[in-house]
């Protein structure tokens, strides 16, 4: 398709499209060439894909509030807000392009693994027959997950949960209620709905919900205007700690800003929730443990001759696992397979994404390298 037609689909001028075209990345998926927007550009969402003469819009960035009481009225014009659980996994958009179902990552790369899991686990034919332009947006969650593994009660492997339904080309969402009804009708599992509240009372309700989610080590909430065009996220202390523990288990991998932002969230939550000295001290203690203990564990691992890196286990057909490993390696990622076995007809593989910089620097420090700082 010519640039002229793509720019119309994207709703931008030809000059803007020319500017965008320089930043598109070209990739290939099983014989199909496509281009995607790796970073937000010229009003076009990151992750937007140009493929076979059509467009698959990126999923919009979800803004965050640090303070519920003021952030909710500031973030929403609508009279009510719908609150949904924010699930901790990885974002996926599913679309049917040229009769073929494809699952796209946040940045707009076709993930061969997710595409196969979706085909295996979800019956989306009816949905796409009735709504060929649909973009099914959701989170892949659960422990057997190659990107973001997290335990959820009742989920023993990988699972999809829908949280949005958009027009593939325009990116326009269905209103929350209608979307929930539609997914129910097509038997697609969804992120839990936690209620709809009056905007001016939502802060208190969300506070109560977040307390419960926190106690269960869940990530948080995404609040949405009833028409689903405005979203706002807020996370639990457990999620902030989990992120910090993860980052500090690979201390030379994660940027300072990643860590810093999460510490700031903790401070604002502590103050907004008017914690007593004891409560604030307990929070500080938990935070310190998340940071320090995970870092110590990594140093101990390396001291014992091990390697730093995140381990993942995946369970699927042999072909699906091969497609995943090839995809990861194709992106330049080192992958060490630690265990590869067959269980009930599936291949179960545990692999590590080794972190060279953390391993090397930790080794150097352990060997006494002197630092000037
Ligand atoms: P961004 O802020 O750009 O969206 P991020 O990597 O910082 O990306 P998160 O902090 O995880 O992402 O928050 C936004 C993401 O939360 C969404 O992109 C989506 O994948 C995920 N998510 C989980 N549950 C929901 C939900 N119920 N509604 C909307 N998004 C959800
Ligand atoms: Mg997330």
Question: What attributes does this structure have?
Answer:
about 375 residues; alpha+beta; Nuclear Transport Factor 2, Chain: A; Dna Ligase, domain 1; Methane Monooxygenase Hydroxylase, Chain G, domain 1; four-stranded antiparallel β-sheet; 12 helices; binds adenosine-5'-triphosphate; binds magnesium ion
Describe the structure in your own words.
The chain has 373 residues and is an alpha+beta fold. Among the domains are: 54 residues, Roll (Nuclear Transport Factor 2, Chain: A); 69 residues, 2-Layer Sandwich (Dna Ligase, domain 1); 67 residues, Methane Monooxygenase Hydroxylase, Chain G, domain 1 (Up-down Bundle). 39% of the residues lie in helices and 25% in strands. It has a 4-stranded antiparallel sheet with strand order 1-2-3-4, with helices on one face. Strands 10-5-11-12 form a 4-stranded antiparallel sheet. The chain has a 4-stranded antiparallel sheet with strand order 7-6-8-9. A hairpin with a 2-residue loop joins strand 14 and strand 15. Helix 1 crosses helix 2, helix 8 runs antiparallel to helix 9 and helix 8 runs parallel beside helix 10. It is globular and about 60 Å long. The structure holds adenosine-5'-triphosphate and magnesium ion. The site of adenosine-5'-triphosphate (ATP) has 13 residues, from strand 5.
